[in-house]
UniProtKB/TrEMBL annotation:
GO terms for molecular function: DNA binding; zinc ion binding. This is THAP-type domain-containing protein. It comes from the Eukaryota. Pfam families: THAP (PF05485). The keyword Zinc applies. Keywords: DNA-binding, Metal-binding, Zinc, Zinc-finger. Residues 6-80 form the THAP-type domain. The keyword ATP-binding does not apply.
Length: 134
């Protein structure tokens, strides 16, 4: 059997360290969707595999028992769905967005008003030396 590695980024299962896991070749018609679901870039030319941790082998494999008992190549059903969406990633980014938003709204233009009140006194003060010279 050739070397197979699970395509899920957070999963380290492969045919070497988990020889007893089902690592199935992802159907071409499911691959785009699954890549999107786990946040992996889709490449047309690649063959990608997924280990049994991310789907329900009994439900999502066409030949689960044939694979188990007759060592058939496992095949996914067209209806198989991956149950590993990128964990917490979207939640984190919305939290960050909230923080950034708060930061900009709490900043108030205080400095401008202060400059305005200073200006008249400096302009009247500049006329003083001329009067003093007389
Ligand atoms: Zn996996």
């Amino acid at each position: 059997m050739e070397y197979r590695k699970c395509f899920v980024p957070t999963c380290s299962n492969n045919s070497k360290n988990s020889p007893n896991k089902i690592i199935v070749r992802i159907r071409e018609d499911l691959r785009k969707k699954w890549c999107r679901d786990v946040g992996v870039e889709y490449h047309k030319v690649y063959t990608q595999y997924c280990c049994e941790d991310h789907f329900d082998p009994k439900k999502d494999l066409k030949n689960y028992y044939q694979h188990k008992f007759l060592n058939q190549e496992p095949r996914l059903k067209p209806t198989a769905s991956i149950c590993c969406s990128a964990p917490n990633k979207s939640e984190e980014s919305t939290e960050l967005a909230k923080l950034l938003l708060q930061d900009t709204t709490t900043r108030k233009p205080v400095k401008r008003k202060y400059e305005d009140t200073i200006m008249p006194s400096t302009s009247s003060y500049s006329t003083l030396p001329v009067k003093a010279g007389l």
